[in-house]
Amino acid sequence: MKRIHWPASNHLFSRREWLRGSTLLLSLGLQELAWGASVLAVRIWPAREYTRVTIESDVPLRSQPLLISDPPRIAIDIDGTELNAALKDLVSQVKGDDPFISGVRVGQYGPGVVRLVFDLRQMVRPQLFNLAPVLAARMDQARYNHRLVMDLYPTKALDPLEALIAQHVKPSPDSESVALKALSSAPPSQRPFDAPSKGAEDVLSTWIEEQSKKPSLRPAPQAPIAPKETPKDAPMQAPMSEGTAELIDRWIVVAIDPGHGGEDPGAIGRQGTKEKDVVLQIAMKLKALINSSVIKGRHGDLAMRAFLTRDADYFVPLHERVKKAQRVQADLFVSLHADAYITPDAKGASVFALSQSGASSAAARWMANQENKADLVGGINLKDKDALVQKTLLDMSTDAQINFSLKLGSEFLGQIKRVGSLHKASVEQAGFAVLKAPDIPSLLVETAFISNPQEEAMLVKDSFQNDMAGAIGAAIVKYFTRTPPSIRSRTL
Question: CA-CA distance, 39 to 377, in Å (whole number)?
Answer without folding.
Answer: 19
